[in-house]
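Good morning,

Attaching, inline, the backbone tokens for the sequence recovery test we're adding to the shared suite. The designed sequence is right after.
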């Protein structure tokens, strides 16, 4: 009942629950609430549970090691893996200095109202789209491609 209905373990200490169990089976001794997480639920899980557990984390070695040989399927986050690939590609292709300069330039226009207004006026004069500049965020892979 506790596991099936997701009841708190403390239900075994409630007077109404104790009275119900005593009425149903006077000889039954209720376990303490501390026995549930320590012994009863893990035992029940081993016997009854057929649910496969998946855990999605970043690619850190300490996380992977923590779940090695555990009854869970450890999956690495595809977005995090993609971020690592893009970071490597940026470094290996010497794009990093250009991206840093772009970040400084965009930062200037995002923080200076007068500079931003002048840029917008220039865009209008040249018949260019007047969308806002997007700042690159190093930990967001799509911010490099969308900036």
């Amino acid at each position: 009942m506790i596991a099936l209905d997701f009841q708190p373990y403390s239900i075994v200490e409630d007077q109404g629950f104790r009275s119900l169990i005593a009425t149903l089976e006077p000889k039954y001794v209720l376990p303490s609430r501390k026995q549930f997480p320590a012994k009863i639920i893990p035992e029940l899980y081993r016997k009854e549970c057929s649910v496969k557990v998946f855990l999605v984390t970043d690619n850190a070695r300490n996380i992977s090691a923590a779940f090695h040989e555990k009854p869970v399927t450890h999956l690495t986050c595809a977005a995090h893996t993609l971020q690592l690939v893009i970071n490597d590609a940026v470094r290996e292709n010497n794009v990093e200095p250009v991206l840093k300069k772009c970040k400084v330039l965009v930062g200037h226009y995002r923080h200076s109202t007068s500079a931003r207004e002048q840029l917008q006026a220039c865009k209008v004069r040249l018949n260019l789209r007047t969308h806002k500049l997007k700042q690159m965020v190093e930990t967001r892979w799509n911010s490099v491609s969308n900036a």
